[in-house]
Amino acid sequence: MTEYPSGPDFDLSLLLEIADGSDEFIVDSIEMFLQQTPESLQQVIDAINVQDWPTAGAAAHKMKSTLGFFGMLESQALIHKVELSCKSGTPNVTEVLAQYNQVKANMAENTEKLLKIKADAGA
Q1: C-alpha span between 103 and 110 (Å, rounded)
Q2: Is pLDDT above 50 for 115?
Q3: In 50-92, where does DSSP find H-type helix?
Q4: Any residues with CB less than 8 A from the CB of 49 and at least 6 apart, and which?
Q5: I need a labelling partner for 48 at 20 to 30 A (CA). Which of 7, 79, 100, 104 fits?
Q6: What is the pLDDT of residues 50-104, one digit of tens each?
Q7: What per-residue confidence (pLDDT) applies to 68?
Q8: Which H helix or E strand runs over 104?
Q9: Domain segments of the chain: what residues?
Q10: How confident is the model at residue 123 (pLDDT cuts 50, 70, 90)?
Q11: CA 95 to CA 110: how far, in whole Å?
Q12: Phi, psi for 10 (deg, rounded to 5)
């Protein structure tokens, strides 16, 4: 595993630095991301759908560090906006949904990249 895709919402530099050459660490980190992130996204939208703003804000907050770890800085900034809006108690629902949907779209694209990296590693 030597070449990694990068882009405005995908940069594995931090992960690679922490992994210090360990493909196993990279694969394990990707597996954890692929397992936990969809669950976290679902928690956010479930809470938004029932207008449970504290839960939506807390679920969004939980995602920020993971997104940063994988260099998904655009998604991290968007989910932070979702968090702050929800924690305000009176968010603009249309705006929050648009931000959430952009994060979800980014995650779909980034998941494909992560699956390819994992497959290339033979995992």
Answers
A1: 10
A2: yes
A3: 53-69, 73-87
A4: none
A5: 7
A6: 999 999 999 999 999 999 999 999 999 999 999 999 999 889 999 999 999 999 9
A7: 93
A8: helix 93-120
A9: 13-120
A10: low
A11: 23
A12: -165, 110
Sequence length of the chain is 123
> What are 19's two structure tokens?
């992994």
In our burial notation (b when 16+ CB lie closer than 10 A, e otherwise), range 5-42 reads: eeeebbbbeebbeebeeebeebbebbeebeeebeebbe
Assess contact for 110 and 70: CB atoms under 8 A. Answer: yes
> What whole-number distance in Å separates Cα of residue 78 and Cα of residue 58?
14
3-state secondary structure of 10: strand
Q: Cβ atoms within 10 A of the Cβ of 101, count?
A: 12
Q: Which is nearest to 49 in space by CA: 84, 106, 100? A: 100
Specify the pTM.
0.90
Domain 13-120 sits in CATH 1.20.950: no
Q: What is the per-residue pLDDT across 7-43, written as a single tens digit (0 to 9) for each?
A: 879 999 999 899 998 889 999 999 999 999 999 999 9
Assess contact for 60 and 86: CB atoms under 8 A.
yes
